[in-house]
Request: fold
Amino acid sequence: MPDMEYTTLGKTGLKISRVGLGTWQFSHDWGVLEYEKAKNVISRALELGINFFDTAMVYGMGISERFLGKALKEAGASRDSVVISTKIPGQFLNRDDVLRSVEKSLKLLGLDYVDILLAHWPPCWHNFPTREYAKAMEQLVKMGKVSYLGLSDFPLELVESFASYLSVAELVVLQVRYNLVERWAEEELIPYAEKHGITVQAWSPIAKGALTGKYTPDNLPKFEDIRAQDPIFHPKNFTQVWELVKKLNEIGSKYGKKPVQVALNWLIMASPRVVPIPGAKTPDQVVDIAGSVGWRLSFEDWRLLDEISRGIRIQYSVYYVEKEVS
Ligand SMILES: NC(=O)c1ccc[n+]([C@@H]2O[C@H](COP(=O)([O-])OP(=O)(O)OC[C@H]3O[C@@H](n4cnc5c(N)ncnc54)[C@H](OP(=O)(O)O)[C@@H]3O)[C@@H](O)[C@H]2O)c1
Reply:
């Protein structure tokens, strides 16, 4: 296993691993609900040099934050050796709820401050003004409860508007859906991040497992699985995705790497600002994730994957009732 590779968080000087770890998996949605299992995942990540962890208030409504904080503490990770991001859901983005919910997060995480606080998604159902939550989030920076700010799933216009309201706090992270079959972030958000020295946390970087080779057109996630309703796994789309997975496998075998590792390596090569935050349910998955960095695909292989992936058009307007409804 090569040594972990590191990069810098935004313009902060903070050292973060070139691949991070998402912890939505510690929730009912993904089913890692036993603390010991979560602890094994986090411990393995630390052993392998991963120091950049992403969680959110809504992941298991506190379970993920609690498990992450406890596991880091029990593993003996010093506070300044890890960088943690957590996120406030759009419906908490009024001043009172921002302050209240961060107080709760800090308790669940067992921390005095969180490194990065992101708005998880815009307050599209509640009409909270952008200025209100920008100022409330900045207040937490002024008080030392949060070091840096970020936005997740925000369109560029709102990112610019949010940034314009900050006086002292820095916007250091944009968290975006970004993987080899969903590349919309390349249009506006990644160029904006590159221009402003912002780190891009790529979420669902292995398309929720679709790029691992574990799922095939004959073995798609079952009904109870959170992914069963995801358009990527809809047979209409997955048949296209599967062609790419076969190529990831073929290319990976040249490097002694798995499809998941090739898919993540492709992302870090796409932009020096992109830091994938894949989720893992087991320590073995963490080993694969750590092995996705510390090496590079050849330009030729990167380009070939680029070309194939550009040909894939995920159709989001899919229906599970395929017969005509009269
Ligand atoms: N900001 C947002 O709106 C947002 C949205 C989604 C996620 N996120 C963040 O991004 C993180 C990652 O995204 P994600 O969980 O949606 O998707 P992902 O990282 O693309 O996929 C994670 C899933 O892939 C499978 N997997 C992982 N490593 C594997 C390996 N080595 N071999 C085979 N399968 C493997 C696991 O599921 P199985 O083993 O069950 O197949 C795992 O749960 C989350 O944990 C969360 O922190 C943020």
Remarks:
- Residues 115 and 147 are 5 Å apart (CA to CA).
